[in-house]
Design goal:
The chain has 192 residues and is an alpha/beta fold. The protein has helices at residues 2-11, 60-64, 81-91, 115-123, 134-143, 175-189; strands spanning 17-20, 31-39, 43-48, 71-74, 108-111, 129-133, 151-155, 164-170. The protein has six helices and eight strands.
Length: 192
Amino acid sequence: PLLKSYDDISENKEKICIGYKILANDKKELGNYSLHFYSDKPNVIVHRSDDSRFEEDKTLNDYLSDFDLLLLIKLKYSYGEYEDSMIDSIKKHEINHINDHNDGNTGFRLTYTDNFSMMKQIENNRADYMIISQNEFEYFEKTSSENKSKLSFKKLKDITTGNKRSLFCSKKVSQNEMDKINKSILKLVGVI
């Protein structure tokens, strides 16, 4: 699980790497990042298809500022520098806070589950929407035929580029090993 992996990396007791979304400034001191190996499509808002409160041509700020809408947030997960800063400034939640007193009070709910389980929570009215990359939602639609008509997504006017993924490794992974990882990334996928 993601939270356990962060703990393992910060404890620095063994060599470990996880696939990560972006270079998060708050995690740079805990470990080492590889070169980017993948670029996501832009983040979107996923919501119940029958919820008419979600419209085209809105910004993330528009949705986050509507405190009647409940955002589902994954614990210790970075959605991207812009998205994280908006969540922090409007919803008053920093991504590293596990027990956040604002949970449920400023228009968000925390969860520790994966994206598929989060979408199930949206379906079941535990929250109104979540943020996810468009390609992750498209994968969900392809692999989950029974539920895909219950959820849909809206693009956001202020998010036009996707996040770049890197490996996040404990400091036990030597610089020589990181150089080998980076060399392999460059050989397999090139510069992203």
